[in-house]
Amino acid sequence: MEYKDIKLSPSRIKLTISDMTLLPSKSSTLQLIILAIFPSANVKLDTGIDINDYPESRIIISKLSIKIRISSMSESQTVANKLYWFKGYGLSLLLRLIPRPIIIIRLKNVNIEIEKVYLAPEPPVGYRTISEMNDMVLPFALPLVSTVTSNGLLRDDGDGTDRLGRPTQQSISESSRLPTFHQDYFLESIQTEDVSEATKLTFFVERWLDHAISQIKKKTNEKNVKKKSWHFQPKKDDDASELDESDNTKEEKEDNTSQSANNEETNTKQQQTYDEKMNNWISWSFTKLFHLLTLDIQQVSIIISGVGSDVVKLTREKYASSSETSHSSSSEATEVNLQLAKIPKSQRSLTVIGAESITLNFTPDLECNALLALVGLHVKVGTPATIGAVSSFASSSSITTTTAENDIPVYTWHTIVHPFNLLAEVKGILPFLIWAINYDHYWSSKFIGINLSVSTEVAVSLSSEHLHTVLLHLDDYTDPNSPFNRWIAWLRDVYRDKTLDISEEEKVEYRNNYARIMVEDGKKKKKKSKSANATTTNEDLSVATDTKLLTKEQLKDMEKRMTKYEIMSLRCYAMKKKWRIPKSNKDFEVFLRNIRSSICDRDNEDSATPMDETNLSPFQRVYATPLHALVTLIRENSSILAPRATIELSVSTLHIDFPYHTSTAQEVSSIPSSITVSGLYFGIDQENVLHVGNGDEKAGIDNKLDNPRPFLNLSLDIHAVKWDVVVDDDDMHVSEELPLFRDRSPLGIVYMVSSCCCLAKIINVVWCIVPYTDPLCFPSILLPRQYRVKTPCHRNTSFLLVCPLR
Fold first, then answer.
1. Are the beta carbons of 561 and 501 closer than 8 angstroms?
2. 56 phi and psi, to 5 degrees?
């Protein structure tokens, strides 16, 4: 972090830092955050690269201030809710007068500059050879490498090295002059993703079993308490009972209620698992923090620098014509991507997503919903004027041009989304944080929601050229064939073909040694007790005498050569005597019933459905052991899509403009038009298809299982729609392209839909997406992608008006 000045005022309890610059090359944490959001960003500074033409991504903050303000507790409404059990209002009034701190964080002029990268570095040794042996197509982000033979002819090694294994001069020069993807970070994540996922599932299995055992103990304790209270009730005489009932009824009721409440609280605290206690602490700490926190950001912008759509079209046309005689299609894409990577920053387009101010607060209740207010939210695209974009888009009214000062490039700006105000309420913040930090057994029963409300009018200008530029800058999410996505998919496939190779004998050795090592690790943690210090036998470790003993490091080396499905399958076989599912647990039975699956017999394990990437659907499977089904239950319930999630968007007025563009030889010029939508509402409601009723319900469960289960409900409500075709009198090209009446006057089209009642909805469309639960209907590999869509549509009144505009 670089900064110009830092000031600390103890009297005002305020810290101020001015002119901050955060560089990801100097901070590994910032590097991980940027790569998680923008994977193709330039986050490293290599030697030999011109930082003026190819700078790294950075975050610039002109001023950061952290201030602690003291206020009374009367500002918080949660204190009054928590003090309802106090007798009288004296203590409540006293606590309201106690001051509490409020942390205010303010930032001014925040610019997050993202520099896109289009080129991949040279892969590790052997990756090119494995790709050629398996007939894999090299990603076009990886430049072609050729070497010089003794005859002076160019020869493609396909490995980036010569016959002695040394890198060629051309590969060194290409990787040293241009920025590349962060290969070390992504290769490490690919190498550890299967092992880390299996480790997380193993941790969740142990936590699930602990919770199931604690629930059984809780039920048995409740039964014992009821029996004791029933057998040991004191007997009283008739006269004494009458006197007690007449004189001390109120006092006994109050004492009994207070004692029962205290007993219930102590019993629940004692019977809670470690994860439940930890989750309570996490919820409590974040609740206190959020109630004290306020974030205010003034003038924030996310600036993405990348190649514009016009440059991409010109480059593709240039090399497409030259590749018809000399190059193949793969080399053409590689050469085009290499030329795009060579374009410096001064000739690249900019996508700016900004806002005048962003304010973040949290509701004062126990739910702590996030309230996010964005003022002046807008999206615009800047094209360098040197490319000739000014002449192409000068007719648009939403374009402004910057001036050049001190060699700063001149940009022509086109506003795609004009400034508007947005209020967002994010629900379920605390459950999401608990799920991200620790194990939450009740995560699938939680609720997450986002409510977006736009109070002002929203104007959107959909220019095809500039909209294409935005999609190119966000191609990590919008284009599966982008340079980064093709390269990361190729890197993962080559790594799996090179590394994932384990024999059946090694699997048996892993299966026989995993339980032994887990038991040894568990006893090492319990050395304080005398029973744990006792010697262990082969029967306790569940290992045969002729089994080859392996170390923990050898098991880790084996895990690197297996997928997460193979690791968990072997662990289920190895731990079937230690991981025992309680027979009285209803969650497991309900899960098997809802997914219509079963457990195969012990002598018939070969007929079980294999656990691999081709059988991801949990429906109608035959599991080898109950633990295999438990792993599927935990994987589904711990997914981010397990709880119910809703997204609601309401816009009062939405204007969509389609601007006019001049026609070219290949394209037909578009007719300018605009669509105005009033009273827009769009909602998404996602539910978990695995939850069909509760375990105690018996009536109607079979019908619910047979009926289609809605997974995603989409709803669209519109109060009014207006579509206009706008004609510019000064532009003769538009008039010539429009249809004409017999008197040669141009034709204007207005399509309107309205309703007599202002509260009625003239368009109400609901989509219900239901996944297939029968894998026999479609191949299992296509099972998660098959959906049925129901679209009922209702409208009240509509009419089409055709009239001349002159």
1. yes
2. -90, 160
pLDDT of residue 167: 42
Q: What is the rounded CA–CA span in Å between residue 512 and residue 548? A: 9
The Cα 431–Cα 440 span in angstroms is: 8
Q: Give the tens place of pLDDT for each residue, 233-252.
A: 555 445 444 444 445 554 55
Phi-psi region of 165 (alpha: psi -120 to 50; beta: other; left: phi over 0): left
Buried/exposed code over 381-416 (b: 16+ C-beta within 10 A; e: otherwise): bbbbbebebbebbebbebbeeeeeeeeebbbbbbbb
Structure tokens at 526: 């319990």
What is residue 371's three-state secondary structure? strand
Burial class of 508 by CB neighbour count within 10 A (0 to 12, 13 to 18, 19+): middle
Measured distance CA(751)–CA(721) in Å, rounded: 8
Angle between helices 183-231 and 28-37 (to 10 degrees): 90
Strand partners, 677: 654, 721
Beta strands in 659-796 (DSSP E): 673-686, 712-718, 720-725, 747-754, 763-771, 787-790, 793-794
d(CA 183, CA 187): 6
155: tokens are: 């020869």
> What number of other Cβ atoms are within 10 A of residue 804's Cβ?
11
Q: Is 238 helix (H, G, I), strand (E, B) or coil?
A: helix
**CA nearest to 680, candidates 749, 765, 752, 756:** 765
Name 210's bridge partners.
none
pLDDT digits (tens, 9 = 90+) for 420-468: 999 999 999 999 999 999 999 999 999 999 999 998 899 998 888 899 9
Q: pLDDT class for 36, splitting at 50, 70, 90?
A: very high
CA 628 to chain CA centroid, Å, is 27
- On whether the CB atoms of residues 304 and 350 are closer than 8 A, the answer is yes
Q: In residues, how long is the chain?
A: 806
Q: Are residues 663 and 674 in contact, defined by beta-carbon separation less than 8 angstroms?
A: no
Buried b (16+ CB within 10 A) or exposed e, 548-575: eebeeebeeebbebbbbbbbbbbbbbbb
Backbone angles phi, psi at 724, to 5 degrees: -120, 140
Q: 């081709």: which residue's tokens?
A: 614
Whole-model pTM above 0.70?
yes
Higher pLDDT, residue 795 or 447:
447
Biggest alpha carbon distance in the chain? 121
Per-residue confidence band for 403, with pLDDT thresholds at 50, 70 and 90: very low
Angstrom distance (rounded) from CA 410 to CA 620 = 62
**What are the residues whose beta carbons fall under 8 Å from the beta carbon of 141, sequence distance 6 or more?**
118, 119, 120, 181, 337, 483, 484, 486, 487
* Residue 533: other Cβ atoms inside 10 A: 10
Structure tokens at 342: 């060579």
* E strands, 613-762, in order: 622-623, 644-658, 673-686, 712-718, 720-725, 747-754
